[in-house]
């Protein structure tokens, strides 16, 4: 913006402000001094427009403010993008001053790019440091430097970077160079004057690789530190010291390249490696002159401090020259140096790398002007103190000058300002009640403060003391804001509450909230509205207690100041009415009782009910899902004592008050009695139903061992079963209470004279009737006691099917003692049997005599109506039976193995005829197994004889047929077969004797004789008569072998011999023609044969049958 136009715009703005102030003063009838302030602003606007010095000052301050705002905004954007520290001094700041013909700069990678960034400002971010490059007019540069001193008062810069080109140093024409140096000095002097300390300066000689050979000499093993000279080090303050440092740099570079030449194969590259240090030496004089000029400030103290000098390469050089051949052309003012071959080597000592490694570590060396900080702080304190003193004096003078009208005006204006400030600070939402509290509280406090001050100073009401009626202003403003904000917010809140309860089908709350909603819309029933809102807001958690009290005070003021009737939501009310028409009022009243806080509490009675104690196992559990094992406070005798359904009771009166929506008019006694009866009987039914379900959900804990059951039931100090029934009885056996008596002391009419006796008695009756009528509290107490006894009696009657729950505590204890005595007897009987050497034998002997169970036979002989006791007894008997059966089974199995299985397997089963491939069974072993006095016979007589035949099986009852031990069917079959074999073998007086009858049947014609011989006895057959021959077994076979001899017509003999006592059976087994037949056929190799019969060989019940002994199979287990 041009200066004249800016001056005109500023002056016009001030003039417009003055005009607005005059207009507002006139419209609001403000004090006269506001007119003077408007006139003063108009005079200032004219001076700005027409007086050059003033307008220059104003324009300058305006431009300065714009530049400061622009630079500050730019830095904020840069800090946000780069995420810089909030402490501006933690980031190193550098200012770049570059020569006009120097094109070198920092890498584009480090450049900070932002949209809308000024074209004349370039910012680089290198290793956490900000580098500012400002290329603008002198005036803008001064603004930038002033902004630096403003934003970083303690330390504007960590250093200044001076970029110069190598060509500009060696050229003869130095006019542009001098101008650049002068500009550099002027900028640093400006910084020095603003900050008060010399700024560190770092000199960069750019483009040294434009000198032929420099790039090659720096390409091989060169440290960047070798190309830097630090002037702050000892001995580098004079020109001679600078010369020596430069010569040392030349020597290091030349020696390094001289060493590398021997390793290089390219001759041209070798030459340039040695030429590079020479080129830097030729540049020495120009560099020294350049630094001397920077260090010369016309004999004055330097406003800056030269810290370092760096030689850097250029990345975009297009020319390379050889100073050794071009020095003559330089002397004759040749400005364009001859170009030689361009190098392709990548620069190593670039400006960004040199800055990072050599300059940035020196950032902390920049001095800090602490005196300026203290001076700035002192000035700020002085300014604040002066301002405070001026304001205090002005306030005191104003207070003395203003009268009451002015003070009222200020108070009202302050109220307006605070109210607007709150409205602008926070967004007000009609959906959030807490957002309205602060502004409305402000208006409320102002209104009440005015009312209180007027009450303390009555003369404030005089008309001549106030130009306007401030009370009316306060009241109208407060009333208007209450009606605008609080009224619709509360109305909407009640509508939302109605909708929520309607969705939840909580119709009782719907009725009550509807009544509150209509009352608030009609500006009626303030007490009920406030009570409901206080409760609702507390339950919703929207506001804390302090805020709720504030809202209630606002509602009180809203009713006090008055407001117009609110238009209700007719659609919502119609929907509510349609739903409420379907509801039962009595049922809603009962729901109210169940929802009361004092009855809605849930009690966990399991610790007492289930007898959960330390080191004790719980015998019972509650199988109710979720939280149904918790008992509502409503279904306890304590709640029953608090309830009373009589119309005159305090509980029913509270019911009417809390449900004002249902009882908009006071109900009659008859109506209350009807509602009370409905609630009472519903409550009785739910009470009984709940405890029935709860009782049915109690069960015995599964998988409890017998020891745990008996121990807990007989040894615990507090029996779990007794405690269970005692706890349940406390809830279902509600004892009746005493009904207060209405009898009063009466004056006996017998002592009165006969003539007055009748009158005295009549007077006494009238007095008693009057006292009963007047003492309503006593009558109510009597009726409540009767009602309580009625409810208690119905609950007890409902559980009459469980006598143990409703009988007296003494009867319950006596019955339980009998039950426990039987359990103890069972426990002692079991313990005594288990302590014997052979518990199984003891149990087996005990089971044979039922009198052994007489002490605890009532456990299975008695009938238990209570499910828990029946289940407990069943569990005890089942576990005891299982234990007894296991012990007896082990004993019987042991005896079976010892008396039957082991003898059979060891002495019989492995031998013939039981094992076809075994050796012959000795007759002594046979006798030991099948003799009438064998171990099996003893087992049968001593053990199996105790079993009772039930159908086809043998059973031994346990505890009165609660269970039984059953002999396995295989054992029964074995015993039957065993007896048959025993009868066959030893049926004749217990001796083993069997007659074998052999009869010839047929013989082939090729045979002449058949001979069967056993010792001296023989059977000879020669195609003659069929004569039977008898042998006695085992008498004839015990020591003689059995021979079969077949003789043919050529007198050749075929002989078969069978050894041993079992030779007849082996003969039959080998030569029997068909199973089940007596015929035996013996054939020769020529096909001749003889057939003879052995009587009984085909009969399975005969000793001679091969299947006779095969029928016997001994089972491994005796019980089923």
From TrEMBL:
It comes from the Bacteria. PANTHER family: INNER MEMBRANE PROTEIN-RELATED, TYPE VI SECRETION SYSTEM COMPONENT TSSM1. Residues 140-384 form the Type VI secretion system component TssM1 N-terminal domain. The lineage of its organism: Bacteria, Pseudomonadati, Pseudomonadota, Gammaproteobacteria, Alteromonadales. Residues 890-988 form the Type VI secretion system component TssM1 helical domain. This is Type VI secretion system protein ImpL. Residues 440-729 form the IcmF-related domain. Residues 997-1095 form the Type VI secretion system IcmF C-terminal domain. The keyword Transmembrane helix applies. Keywords: Membrane, Transmembrane, Transmembrane helix. The gene is impL. The chain crosses the membrane at residues 7-28, 34-59, 381-399.
């Amino acid at each position: 913006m041009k200066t004249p136009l800016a001056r005109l715009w500023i002056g016009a703005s001030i003039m417009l402000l003055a005009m607005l102030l005059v207009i507002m003063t006139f419209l609001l009838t403000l004090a006269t001094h506001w007119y003077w302030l408007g006139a003063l602003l108009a005079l200032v606007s004219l001076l700005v427009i027409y007086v050059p010095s003033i307008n220059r000052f104003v324009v300058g301050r305006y431009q300065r403010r714009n530049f400061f705002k622009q630079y500050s905004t730019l830095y904020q954007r840069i800090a946000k993008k780069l995420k810089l520290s909030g402490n501006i001094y933690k980031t190193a700041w550098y200012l770049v001053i570059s020569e006009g013909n120097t094109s070198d700069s920092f890498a584009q990678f480090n450049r900070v790019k932002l949209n809308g960034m000024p074209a004349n400002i370039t910012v680089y971010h290198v290793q956490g440091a900000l580098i500012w490059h400002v290329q603008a007019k002198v005036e803008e540069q001064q603004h930038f430097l002033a902004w630096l001193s403003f934003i970083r008062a303690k330390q504007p810069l960590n250093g200044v970077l001076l970029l110069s080109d190598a060509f500009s140093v060696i050229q003869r024409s130095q006019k542009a160079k001098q101008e650049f140096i002068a500009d550099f000095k002027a900028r640093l002097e400006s910084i020095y004057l603003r900050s008060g300390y010399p700024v560190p300066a770092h000199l960069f000689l750019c483009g040294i690789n434009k000198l032929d050979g420099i790039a090659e000499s720096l390409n091989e093993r060169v440290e960047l530190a070798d190309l830097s000279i630090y002037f702050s080090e000892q001995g580098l303050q004079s020109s001679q010291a600078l010369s020596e440092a430069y010569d040392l740099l030349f020597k290091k570079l030349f020696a390094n390249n001289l060493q590398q030449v021997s390793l290089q194969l390219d001759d041209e590259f070798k030459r340039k490696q040695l030429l590079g240090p020479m080129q830097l030496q030729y540049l020495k004089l120009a560099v020294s002159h350049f630094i001397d000029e920077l260090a010369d400030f016309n004999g004055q103290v330097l406003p800056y401090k030269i810290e370092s000098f760096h030689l850097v390469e250029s990345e975009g050089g297009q020319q390379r020259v050889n100073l050794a051949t071009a020095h003559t052309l330089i002397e004759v003012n040749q400005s364009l140096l001859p170009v030689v071959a361009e190098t392709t080597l990548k620069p190593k000592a670039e400006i960004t790398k040199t800055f990072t490694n050599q300059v940035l570590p020196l950032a902390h060396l920049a001095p800090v002007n602490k005196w300026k900080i203290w001076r700035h702080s002192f000035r700020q304190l002085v300014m604040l103190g002066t301002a405070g003193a001026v304001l205090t004096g002005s306030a005191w003078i104003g207070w003395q000058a203003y009268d009451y009208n002015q003070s009222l005006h200020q108070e009202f204006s302050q109220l307006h300002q605070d109210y607007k400030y709150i409205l602008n600070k926070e967004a007000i939402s009609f959906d959030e009640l807490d957002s309205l509290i602060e502004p409305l509280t402000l208006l409320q406090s102002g209104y009440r403060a005015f009312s209180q001050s007027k009450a303390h100073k009555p003369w404030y009401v005089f008309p001549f003391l106030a130009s306007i009626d401030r009370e009316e202003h306060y009241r109208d403003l407060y009333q208007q804001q209450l009606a605008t904000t609080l009224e619709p917010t509360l109305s909407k809140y009640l509508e939302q509450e109605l909708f929520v309860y309607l969705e939840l089908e909580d119709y009782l709350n719907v009725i009550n909230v509807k009544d509150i909603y209509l009352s608030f819309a009609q500006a009626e029933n303030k007490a009920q509205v406030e009570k409901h809102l206080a409760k609702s807001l507390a339950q919703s958690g929207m506001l804390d207690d302090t805020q709720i009290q504030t809202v209630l005070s606002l509602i009180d003021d809203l009713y006090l100041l008055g407001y117009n009737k609110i238009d209700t939501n007719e659609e919502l009310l119609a929907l509510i009415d349609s739903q409420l028409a379907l509801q039962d009022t009595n049922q809603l009243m009962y729901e109210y009782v169940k929802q009361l806080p004092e009855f809605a509490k849930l009690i966990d009675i399991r610790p007492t009910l289930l007898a959960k104690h330390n080191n004790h196992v719980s015998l019972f559990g509650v199988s109710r899902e979720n939280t149904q094992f918790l008992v509502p406070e409503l279904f306890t005798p304590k709640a029953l004592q608090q309830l009373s359904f009589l119309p005159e009771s305090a509980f029913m009166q509270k019911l009417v008050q809390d449900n004002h929506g249902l009882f908009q008019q006071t109900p009659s006694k008859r109506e209350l009695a009807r509602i009370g009866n409905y609630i009472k009987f519903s409550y009785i039914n739910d009470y009984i139903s709940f405890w029935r379900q709860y009782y049915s959900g109690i069960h015995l804990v599964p998988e409890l061992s017998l020891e745990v059951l008996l121990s807990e039931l007989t040894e615990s100090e507090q029996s779990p079963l007794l405690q269970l029934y005692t706890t349940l009885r406390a809830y279902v056996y509600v004892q009746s209470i005493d009904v207060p008596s209405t009898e009063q002391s009466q004056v006996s009419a017998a002592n009165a004279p006969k003539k007055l006796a009748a009158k005295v008695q009549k007077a006494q009756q009238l007095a008693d009737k009057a006292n009963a009528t007047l003492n309503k509290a006593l009558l109510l107490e009597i009726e409540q006691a009767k009602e309580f006894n009625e409810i208690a009696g119905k609950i007890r009657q409902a559980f009459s099917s469980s006598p143990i729950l409703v009988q007296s505590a003494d009867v319950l204890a006596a019955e339980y003692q009998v039950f426990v005595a039987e359990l103890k007897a069972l426990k002692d009987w079991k313990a005594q049997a288990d302590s014997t050497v052979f518990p199984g034998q003891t149990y087996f002997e005990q089971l044979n005599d039922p009198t052994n169970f007489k002490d605890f036979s009532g456990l299975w002989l008695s009938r238990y109506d209570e499910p828990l006791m029946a289940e407990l007894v069943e569990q005890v008997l089942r576990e005891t039976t299982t234990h007894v059966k296991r012990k007896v089974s082990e004993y019987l199995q042991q005896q079976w193995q010892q008396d039957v299985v082991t003898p059979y397997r060891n002495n019989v089963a492995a031998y013939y005829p039981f094992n076809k491939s075994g050796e012959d069974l000795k007759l002594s072993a046979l006798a030991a197994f099948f003799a009438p006095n064998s171990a099996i016979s003893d087992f049968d007589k001593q053990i199996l004889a105790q079993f009772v035949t039930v159908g086809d099986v043998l059973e031994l009852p346990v505890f009165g047929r609660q269970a039984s031990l059953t002999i396995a069917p295989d054992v029964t079959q074995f015993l039957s077969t065993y007896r048959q074999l025993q009868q066959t073998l030893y049926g004749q007086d217990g001796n083993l004797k069997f007659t074998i009858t052999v009869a010839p049947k047929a013989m082939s014609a090729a045979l002449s004789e058949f001979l069967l011989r056993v010792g001296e006895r023989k059977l000879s057959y020669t195609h003659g008569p069929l004569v039977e021959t008898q042998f006695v077994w085992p008498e004839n076979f015990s020591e003689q072998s059995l021979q079969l001899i077949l003789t043919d017509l050529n007198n050749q003999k075929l002989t078969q011999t069978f050894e041993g006592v079992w030779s007849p059976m082996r003969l039959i087994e080998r030569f029997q023609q068909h199973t089940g037949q007596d015929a035996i056929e013996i054939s020769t190799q020529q096909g001749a044969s003889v057939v003879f019969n052995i009587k009984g060989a085909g009969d399975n019940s005969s000793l001679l049958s091969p299947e006779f002994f095969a029928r016997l199979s001994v089972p491994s287990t005796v019980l089923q």
